[in-house]
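Notes continue from the previous slide.

Worked example: a multi-chain complex. Inputs as given:
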Amino acid sequence: MRRRTFLALAAAWLALWAGRDAAAAERSVTVFAAADLAFAFRELAPRFEGATGVRLTLVFGSTGNFAQQIRHGGPADVFFAADASFVDRLIVEGALLRETRTRYAQGRVVLATARGAGPRLRALDELLGPRVRHVAIANPAHAPYGRAAEEVLRRSGLWEALRPKLVYGENVRHALQFLQTGAADAGIVARSVADAPEIEWAPVDPALHAPLDQVAAVVRRSPRPELGLALIRFVTGAEGRPVLRRYGFRVPGEL
Amino acid sequence: MDLFPLWLSLRVALSATALTLAVGIPVALLLARVRFAGRGLLEAVVVLPLVLPPTVLGYYLLVVIGSRGPLGRALAAVGLELAFTWWAAVLAASIGSVALLIKSAQAGFETVDRQLEQAARTLGRSEWSVFWSVTLPLAWRAVLAGAVLAFCRALGEFGITLMVAGNIPGRTQTLPLAIYDRVQAAQMDEAHALALIAVGIVVVLVFGLSRVARLRY
């Protein structure tokens, strides 16, 4: 009989929690946002919440991963991608609303040096030097900033020579972390996340990589598409633009 | 500090352990006792989750339970959603940890003296009764050790969960996901605190149980 009591307890315990997810979702908009937006959006979110009374749930991660999740019913209301191609594919597949597609920023990469690794690197070819043992970039296979970093290195003729030194982060924040921990001495990361205390950076000629057009769109499954659209307008509007610019994005109007 | 990830993780790990016991014990018994065609194949399938990278496993699971997947669509037809809920995290944790329970329990069942079971049968006990009053009591230490390992693995599950449950704060962000998120956001104090909590739970559990039950892993 102990067994039956135990089973009843377990069932009750499970049932107790089953209904909670839906309730928690009531008044909030879930945002899937590219990793490079982490710092800018943490600043913008409270302002949007204050202005609209809508609660934002921010989820930061890799654009490629989010695209997979949205394709398979991920619970996002709005998707801020670091790269237009993922958004455009999802629009064609019908997972995102075409009429809400908005280019909200353009990303740039910088040459970053970990503070512990000696004086700041100023030019890309200094990466070849012996004091740089590991160069961190995001994974070029699926992370937009990884692709940009690869392009920069290829166009400056350094790719082949640097390959043994490269270490890949899952996304650009992960690559940044290699630098912050000192595991990598240098790296090519997003300008928008480069203002970290453990890091110094130097600009990279924007002509060396195709512009990183960052595009947002509302998810078709969203029960409240107007709220997602409101957030896109807020980010690209008078309040959002200066913040994005401060984190090193180029913004609509100057694109 | 927001402790939601802690409560969620405990809930998920406990639920996953329960599910793992329910599914794993019959499979362990089957592997320990019955010779059948395809037994080797089943053994391989059981350990597969330990071999495949969690994110890969998570992707395949998402394809099955997502809104386009066969299971996802079947569930949606009756108004249920599994992907990106905490149930998805339970499923992820169960898949990640069930092999540990099965292998440990299987080893336990294999050491049980079958003559004792025979004796119970000659005394008129049913198979069900033999299992509960002879086999399980003799193998319980191995089963419990497996359950503890499974619980720990479930508590630490990361890759499959990230893929099928998302990393949604306040809904599906479990303790490991929360730690990862804090580290990425350079909020190291919170990351350390959460990691310390996770370590604390496991140390207390493993140490406590090994004292009480003298478990061997």
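Summary box: The domain at 4-213 of chain B is CATH 1.10.3720.10 (MetI-like fold). Chain B is about 80% helix and 0% strand.
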